[in-house]
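TL;DR need structure tokens for one chain.
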Amino acid sequence: LKSNPSNNEEKEAQTQLTKSDELQRLHSQALSAYEQEDYEAAISLLDEILAVCVWDAELRELRAECYIKEGEPSKAISDLKAAAKLKNDNTEAFYKISRIYYQLGDHELSLSEVRECLKLDQDHKQCFSLYKQVKKLNKQIESAEEFIREGRYEDAINKYDSVMKTEPDVPVYTTRAKERICHCLSKNQQATEAIKVCTEVLQLEPANVNALKDRAEAYLLEDLYEE
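>> reply
TL;DR here they are.
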């Protein structure tokens, strides 16, 4: 405005200044909503700001936090991935992405993201601790699946028992382990046990197709055709 106050440019500059003031006001409101735990309002305000300030990593991280609090982890991942690219050495973003994938039961993607964190900082305590946990779990699941492919069902069952001991606090792993144990028991013609474990899975996930199929196979072994 000072350097070249010609009409056109002055108008454009004034418009940008007004927009800038408006965005700062929205930013204050968004922070206030976040602090008051009104995450829905905070997301709505951040949406408006990010439509203009597309490359702001910190705003994306803030919106990701809101999504996590609102129980929308996949949307949080999208923002955190952008933040990881926008900010150099963003170990925190990689750590959070890895944790979300882990909680969702996607141990392979979790392992991939936590490795990215350790590439940036091999001494990152949180990432290293998570890496050890995910790597152990990943190895057990891979090993169990290999046993199933080889028809070694007893070994697979023992390995999935270990999976449940390794991660007792994230329900998705227990459910998946039980689903695979149900499959192994059914394939191993241990019908009574298979029916019991498959039923446990179906109480947690009534529409679990794999458990329904495996329980059906077990019922067939017992000549329970109606069931």
